[in-house]
Design goal:
By secondary structure, this protein is of the alpha/beta class. The strands form four sheets. Strands 1, 2, 10, 11, 12, 13, 14 and 20 form an eight-stranded mixed β-sheet that branches. Its EC number is 1.4.3.-.
């Protein structure tokens, strides 16, 4: 029986996989997309009501219209509508003793100790300087990379002689950005992660050019849904987790598992799945030791978004913008994610705070978050009468995301020597994903850019191979 051999099979229908498919589609090559879930979008997941009304984004949620040019172009192309993240009002910091420090958005918190204030500014400026300098760039080969990769970000902070309050501030960054404690990630990885987003200040910013500037009224799932509609009908196979990839005689065999296992053949495979998911696939021949060694050392931290809807935005009545950070948890960072009259607050819970919080039952988890919100944004009052509902992101329990979100990180001793091996093709298999991008790594922008570059590389090799055959 005849079995079609596709030019390209893409494994994974997240943003990087869909962009790879679109790039191949535009070149009029044959392709197929295999997706393990029953939906497209990967770690973009929009929660909608039964009537289709957007309630919240449980995964990636923000873009901007300047340095995230690919996402902005895509939003315009798909006719999506954006709205600006609220920054009007004061930011709140919850100190070690529970006391609050308030300051206008864009300013810096003024702590009782001048040493603490200066130390926070100093470490912020040091991380910003290293992550934005071009002479040499942190991405450029050199001894600076090996040195930074030999220590954890915690050691980096201790060597900088920060105060405990400045250390706690930096821990808020790692909790909110990667779900890890400073001891769990190499200094190089965290600083390079910042550099990929244009620097710490840009990544943390909710203003113009920042990582949290614009949200999508239709929900970020609309990106993947719109992209999928532009592919050839029938080219996406849902509920098709891949169990084996075998390379032989210049082609690749891709076997799915589950209730209706299938085998597909391709000249090239683009693997668009998180590195922790690699280990769920049997590769024949096995992945190179250097690649699998690095992939097996990538780790998600503990990271979840706990999203709470209220009957009103009580924080704006108190002159607060809804942005807050805490040194005691369980929530490390809060953001106002309301849309119109729908009052909503997104709580980022990560690292050791998150692991401690997660062992409670659902009611205690909710109660602890509501108490913290009341303490920080409602003058300590009971806000439970204003509570409507809460929902938690599913990533920690999902196999096909690698049991985590938003981006796998690396401990000391992996990145400096392992980056090239992690990104390199293996035979006719090419690897893409936001974690493999050097621009906006961990963000939707990084996913789109990686998917396109991986597809271009695969197609260039196909073209070169065809030209070689034509000469024979």
């Amino acid at each position: 029986m005849y079995q079609q051999t596709y030019d390209v099979v893409i494994v994974g229908a997240g943003l990087s996989g869909l962009q790879a498919a679109l790039t191949v589609h535009h070149e009029r090559l044959s392709y197929l997309v295999l997706e393990a879930r029953d939906r497209v979008g990967g770690k973009t997941l929009t929660l909608r009501s039964s009537e289709g009304v957007v309630k919240s984004d449980l995964g990636a949620a923000w873009i901007n219209d300047s340095n995230q040019s690919r996402m902005w172009e895509l939003a315009k192309d798909l006719g999506l509508h954006t709205y600006v993240q609220n920054t009007q009002g004061d930011v709140v910091v919850q100190d070690f003793d529970g006391k609050l420090v308030k300051f206008p958005y864009g300013d810096v918190p003024k702590y009782p100790s001048q040493d603490d204030t200066e130390s926070c500014i100093s470490i912020r400026d040091l991380v910003e300087d290293i992550s934005t300098t071009q002479m040499p760039s942190i991405f450029a080969a050199g001894p600076h990379r090996e040195q930074l990769d030999s220590i954890s970000f915690e050691t980096f902070l201790r060597q900088a002689k920060v105060t405990e309050k400045a250390f706690a501030t930096a821990q808020v960054w790692t909790h909110a950005m990667l779900g890890v404690d400073p001891a769990e990630v190499s200094a190089l990885y965290f600083l390079e992660y910042c550099a990929a987003g244009g620097g710490l200040m840009t990544m943390r910013s909710d203003c113009k050019d920042g990582g949290q500037y614009l949200r999508i009224q239709e929900g970020t799932a609309a990106f993947a849904e719109g992209m999928a509609q532009r592919l050839k009908p029938g080219s996406i196979k849902l509920d098709s987790p891949v169990g084996k990839i075998e390379q032989q005689d210049g082609t690749v065999s891709i076997s799915t598992r589950g209730r209706s296992p299938q085998v597909y053949r391709a000249r090239k495979v683009i693997l668009s799945i998180p590195t922790p998911v690699y280990r769920t696939i049997k590769f024949s021949p096995s992945l190179p030791a250097a690649k699998s060694g690095v992939a097996n050392h990538t780790r998600y931290g503990f990271y979840t978004k706990y999203i709470v809807r209220f009957s009103k935005t009580f924080w704006t009545d108190r002159g607060l913008c809804g942005l807050g950070q805490s040194f005691i948890g369980p929530v490390s960072v809060f953001r106002d994610t309301s849309l119109g009259d729908d009052a909503c607050m997104t709580c980022f819970i990560g690292g050791r705070f998150g692991r401690k919080w997660a062992v409670q039952d659902a009611e205690r988890k909710k109660a602890s978050v509501l108490k913290q919100i009341g303490d920080m944004f409602a003058d300590g009052r009971d806000i439970s009468p204003l509570f409507m509902e809460a929902y938690e992101s599913p990533w920690m329990d999902e196999e096909f995301s690698g049991w985590g979100c938003p981006c796998p990180a690396m401990p000391p001793g992996v990145l400096a020597d392992g980056w090239k091996a992690l990104c390199a093709p293996f035979g006719n298999i090419h690897f893409v994903g936001t974690e493999l991008s050097t621009v906006w790594r961990g963000y939707m922008e990084g996913a789109i850019r990686s998917g396109e570059s991986g597809a271009m590389q695969a197609m260039a090799e196909l073209k070169a191979g065809d030209q070689q055959i034509a000469k024979l």
